[in-house]
Write a structure and sequence with these properties.
With about 700 residues, the chain is α+β, with helices and mostly antiparallel strands. It is built from 10 helices and 34 strands. The structure holds beta-L-fucopyranose.
Length: about 700
């Protein structure tokens, strides 16, 4: 049975008291529950993966881990709360138990917990510390409890369901208010299982008897939303990149979905226009490649442009954003992650600092359902008032006229979701030289839709709902002029030596120098790829032509081009070791790469970029480097070890005494994992 939430009823009553007595539109089912409405307002909250895997350098522990390994040295939940709060996030969800079964609280259900760890002499309770830190900071607190337990001997039998439910009871009883309970879809497989060390498969549809588990949550934490592929309250967005879809419905054909179903991402995750239940999407993504901390990913924290894409493609596409921090072995959010998050926060704050739809704006509509639902309700800054059309009118336009010309590049629209999600298609037009010109076109709006657009200058703007499930209910329209994203340009070199630069913001101009001087608007303007055929140092900057502001200067020290380089021997894809592309790799069964550079050069060193894949194989640990003038007689110029390459697989530079050579031979004497040596990119350092 559907129930209209209190807040919606209130709005209905309020509107019927209005003088024009125009009734509010009827709800279009499904509609959100009160707990879902409260959750929707949060928009943005933090995920923390911190557990046994942090100490074993794993993503999925087997369950056989020794609890004594769990021993954070500087654990500080207060630091997590500060970082999350400063970023404008509204809560933290913690992996109370991941698939390996280790419990972060002193549970009565198993010995495989913090009680058996050295942390605070076995008297610690990480969950309590986090719950308290959240409360103190005014943050919501949520728990991730993995249904799959690779440690528990009973996993796969009914006895485990009792254990699982008891764990849930403990978490939902002893730690105050919980806003979200997170159930993972990954279930069943190999594991330790109390020493059985076997594979245990479960019927994901029936094994957990979810209906009765959910009852426990409703009873103990009636305000908590339950997350899972099938909800019931909040659904997985279907990928781990943090992207919702251009068309994202909060409606889901919930009864067709179950947790962990293989076809979920492809078939169900964007939601359905005619979905039967309100189950909005939550986009979960880690700030690093892994969910858990690995020192070797310290250099792989997502960049500002990547984080911005995540923000706009989740919150801007009718989903909430659950951004994960792999807390490190100390028990802290790592400095690199904090630094990137702060950049994101500053940029988001800057982008949305000033809503251009202010009081001076004249608003008119092609149609409305009376004064209480006039166009002005979409720009009054209130979330419980909205512009709507008469029953049966599923399209209509709202026009904003500005006193002065404005320039904007962000458009935000919101529907009044307590009455259901309605908009199916919309178009945005701006008046330019007296003519209406299409600026953008979209499908769903939902709770919030944000479009990033090229800058538009205009005095009038028209937002038209082209089609909707019923009378559209638009509660908010906003415009912003986000400052340009001024970050250092990214460089890409081709094997030919051709160099190109790019910036994530199309509206900035790139300038560069080749003589070591600081680039300015007077320097060389980058227009098309440039040929760099000599060792050179390029200094490059992004500049906003309007404000005159510029990014930091990027410095690229380029050596000789590889245009005439050839791999001698090796398989067909050996070229990938010298193609100037770190994302392509060559794996050599011979553990060796031999290159003919085409001419003789004065070499003084070489560079090695290990594979940058999430799961690395064949990373070279110890090496020998030899050179030759004729490819026949060889001279060893370097040998050694790439210190710390396991934890820090970044570009390695090795110098040696200057030697003239046309050929080089780079051999691995040992790889980290014993697999054949792999090369993402190999280069040389020449004497100038
Ligand atoms: C996945 C899990 O298997 C990962 O380890 C991680 O917890 C992620 C959030 O969900 O399904």
């Amino acid at each position: 049975m559907y129930r209209i939430p209190l807040i919606a009823l209130l709005a209905l009553q309020l509107s019927s008291c209005n003088s024009d007595r125009q009734p509010a539109p009827e709800p279009v089912y499904p509609i959100p529950s009160e707990r879902q409405l409260a959750w929707q307002d949060l928009e943005y909250y933090g995920f923390v993966h911190f557990n046994m895997n942090t100490f074993t350098n794993m993503e999925w522990g087997t369950g056989a881990e020794d609890p004594s390994l769990f021993n954070p040295t500087e654990f500080d939940a207060g630091q997590w709360a500060r970082v999350v709060k400063d970023a404008g996030m509204k809560g933290i969800i913690i992996t109370a138990k991941h698939h390996d079964g280790f419990c972060l609280w002193p549970t009565t259900t198993t010995e495989h917990s913090i009680k058996a760890s050295p942390y605070k002499g076995g008297k610690g309770d990480i969950i309590q510390e986090i719950a308290e830190a959240c409360r103190a900071a005014g943050l919501k607190f949520g728990v991730y409890l993995s249904p799959w337990d690779r440690n528990n001997e009973h996993y796969g039998t009914a006895a485990y369901i009792d254990v699982f439910r008891e764990q849930l009871r403990e978490l939902l009883t002893n730690y105050g208010e919980v806003f979200e309970v997170w159930f993972d879809g990954a279930n069943g497989g190999t594991g330790y299982y109390g020493g059985a060390n076997e594979e245990r498969r479960v019927d994901k549809k029936s094994y957990y008897d979810w209906e009765n588990t959910f009852k426990i949550i409703r009873e103990l934490q009636p305000n908590a939303v339950i997350f899972g592929d099938a909800g019931p309250d909040v659904r997985w967005v279907g990928n781990e990149h943090g992207f919702a879809y251009e068309t994202t419905w909060s409606n889901l054909m919930r009864d067709s979905v179950y947790g962990g179903m293989p076809e979920y991402s492809e078939m169900y995750s964007p939601g359905q226009e005619n979905g039967t239940h309100w189950v909005p999407a939550e986009a979960d993504v880690s700030i690093r490649p892994g969910w858990y901390y690995h020192e070797y990913e310290d250099h792989k924290v997502k960049t500002l442009p990547q984080l911005l894409d995540i923000y706009y493609n989740s919150i801007g596409r009718n989903a909430s954003l659950l951004l994960n921090f792999p807390v490190d072995k100390r028990g802290l959010i790592h400095e690199n992650d904090v630094a990137q998050l702060q950049k994101l926060t500053a940029k988001i704050n800057e982008d949305f600092a000033n809503n251009l739809v202010g009081k001076q704006v004249l608003v008119s509509t092609s149609v409305d359902r009376g004064r209480s639902y006039s166009g002005s309700k979409a720009i009054d800054g209130k979330s419980d008032t909205f512009w709507s059309t008469p029953d049966g009118e599923v399209s209509g336009s709202l026009t904003l006229e500005f006193k002065e010309e404005i320039s904007f590049n962000r458009f935000m629209a919101q529907e009044y979701i307590p009455l259901g999600q309605r908009v199916k298609a919309f178009v945005l037009e701006a008046q330019v030289d007296g003519e209406w010109q299409e600026v953008a076109r979209g499908t769903t709006v939902g709770y919030k839709r944000i479009l990033r657009l090229p800058s538009v200058k205009t005095k009038a703007l028209r937002f038209t709902v082209l089609d909707a499930k019923a009378s559209p209910t638009i509660s908010n329209l906003a415009l912003f002029d986000a400052p340009k994203l001024l970050i250092e340009p990214v460089m890409q070199r081709e094997k030919s030596g051709l160099v190109s630069f790019s910036s994530p913001d199309d509206e900035v101009v790139i300038y560069y120098t080749l003589d070591g001087s600081q680039p300015t608007a007077e320097s060389l303007k980058y227009q098309e790829p440039i040929m760099v055929s000599e060792p050179s140092e390029l200094r490059v900057v992004s500049l906003d032509p309007q404000s005159g502001q510029s990014s930091e200067v990027a410095v690229f020290a380029l050596d000789i081009p590889k245009a005439n380089w050839k791999v001698v021997g090796g398989s067909e894809n050996a070229i990938q070791a010298i193609d100037e592309n770190d994302r392509t790799n060559y794996t050599a069964d011979s553990n060796r790469l031999m290159v003919d550079m085409g001419s003789t050069y004065p070499l003084s060193g070489f560079t090695y970029m290990p594979v940058q894949n999430r799961y690395m194989s064949g990373v070279i640990k110890t090496f020998v480097f030899e050179v030759s003038r004729d490819g026949v007689s060889w001279q060893q110029v370097a040998e050694g070890e790439f210190g710390n390459i396991a934890n820090s697989p970044i570009l390695q530079r090795v110098s040696f005494s200057p030697t003239d050579a046309r050929f080089f031979r780079f051999s691995a004497t040992e790889t980290l994992d014993g697999n054949p040596a792999s090369f993402a990119e190999v280069g040389v350092i020449t004497v100038k």
